[in-house]
Amino acid sequence: AKEGQRGTLQVCDTSLKRAYAARRSLAKDLEHAVARDELRLAFQPIVCLATRRTAGFEALLRWQHPCRGSVSPAEFIPIAEDSGLILPIGQWVIREACRTAANWPGDVRITVNISARQFSDSGLVDCITAALADSGTEAERLTLEITESTLIRDDGGVLGALETLRGMGIRVALDDFGTGYASLSYLTRFPFDVIKIDRSFVQGSSGGANHQVVVQSICDLAGKLGVGTVAEGIETEEHARLAREAGCDLGQGYLFDRPLSAVDCAARLAAERLG
Ligand code: C2E
Ligand code: CA
Ligand code: CA
Ligand code: CA
User: Fold this and answer.
1) What pTM did the predictor assign?
2) Closest by CA position to 200, among listed 170, 228, 226, 178
3) Number of C-alpha atoms within 13 angstroms, CB side, residue 260?
4) Which one-letter DSSP state was computed for residue 71?
5) What are the residues whose beta carbon lies below 5 Å from ligand 3 (ion)?
6) Which of 247, 258, 243 is closest to 223 using CA atoms?
7) For the segment 221-256, what is each residue's pLDDT rounded down to a tens digit?
């Protein structure tokens, strides 16, 4: 039995070591990803639930690794955050997103995810200001998505930066709403323009009455606070109908479109505006 236990431990130890080694090697490769032009942005439509018209797009990072192929952001964003690489990568995302949005009609918005680490960088406001000016994209078209984890780390710096950015006309959205520990308390302490309702509630809402009550309550609350709502992860007509009935303004999910290349975004917008 002892032998067996030792054997098991060794296996765990080896697979842990392998996981660490894989992470270290990804971190090393990620350092060169920007310079080697391996990063791309995909853009997922955010549509008006009533008209299905494209209100904007969320920019989502894609990494085409030379050997591993496409690596999920769920895998490499945490590595980028831990290593600090999220700072140069995040700056690239902001510039690239603004540059792409500049080609769209003026009423189509662009939404960018910002990590907690990026708020501890004093250059964030300057980077956004320069990206808007260089691309010619109006500040009113830009929304920044942050999660509760950004607010948990706040030392006063996050609130200050958010106020500066909102003063410029930029919107701020609270992402993955409802999945954290204290989402409601943040609503009273930070200024938000939009709440993004996490897909676990949106998708659950066709399975049980409770989820629908939660989505409905979030929308009621948002309405009273004067905050907009986006329902995430809409995959079926049923999800779309329930989100709309709950009073949600906008929706995002595979039912409407997957994240698209910049070329496909332009085609989608052109088709929509013709038809
Ligand atoms: P997120 O911000 O919550 O983004 C939404 C995720 O849901 C995206 O995954 C999107 O492709 C996926 N999604 C969209 N519609 C549906 C649907 O109908 N069903 C399902 N099951 N999923 C849907 P993705 O692109 O893999 O990104 C994962 C996460 O990585 C993002 O979650 C975000 O937290 C992070 N991320 C992506 N790009 C960036 C970035 O540029 N900066 C930062 N800081 N984080 C990013
Ligand atoms: Ca997001
Ligand atoms: Ca989300
Ligand atoms: Ca998320």
Assistant:
1) 0.93
2) 178
3) 20
4) E
5) 175-176, 232
6) 247
7) 999 999 999 999 999 999 999 999 999 999 999 999
Query: Which one, of 224, 230, 231, lies nearest residue 204 by Cα?
Result: 231
Q: 36 in helix, strand or coil?
A: coil
Is residue 206 within 8 A of residue 231, CB to CB? The reply is no
Task: Using the structure block, give the residue that is written with the tokens 């990804």.
Answer: 26
Distance separating alpha carbons of residues 3 and 6, to the nearest angstrom: 5
**What does the pLDDT look like over 44-80, one tens digit per residue?**
999 999 999 999 999 999 999 999 999 999 999 999 9
CA Rg value for the chain: 20
Helix (H) / strand (E) containing 89 = helix 86-101
**What is the ipTM metric for this complex?**
0.98
* Residues sharing a CB contact under 8 Å with residue 254, sequence separation 6 or more, in sequence order: 234, 235
Residues 187, 149 contacting (CB under 8 angstroms) = no
Looking at the DSSP assignment, which residues form a beta bridge with residue 145?
Answer: 113, 173
Measured from the Cα of 259, ligand 1's closest atom is 11
Output the ligand 1 site: residues, CB below 6 A: 44, 59-61, 72-74, 77, 93, 113, 115, 175-176, 199, 233-235, 252-254, 259
Q: Which ligand is nearest to the CA of 92?
A: 1
Beta-carbon neighbour count of residue 229 at 10 Å?
Answer: 24
Of 124, 126, 147, 138, nearest to 170 by C-alpha is: 138
Output the CA–CA distances (angstroms, integers) from residue 163 to 109, 229, 275, in the order listed: 20, 20, 40
**Of 81, 248, 58, whose CA–CA distance to 149 is shortest?**
81
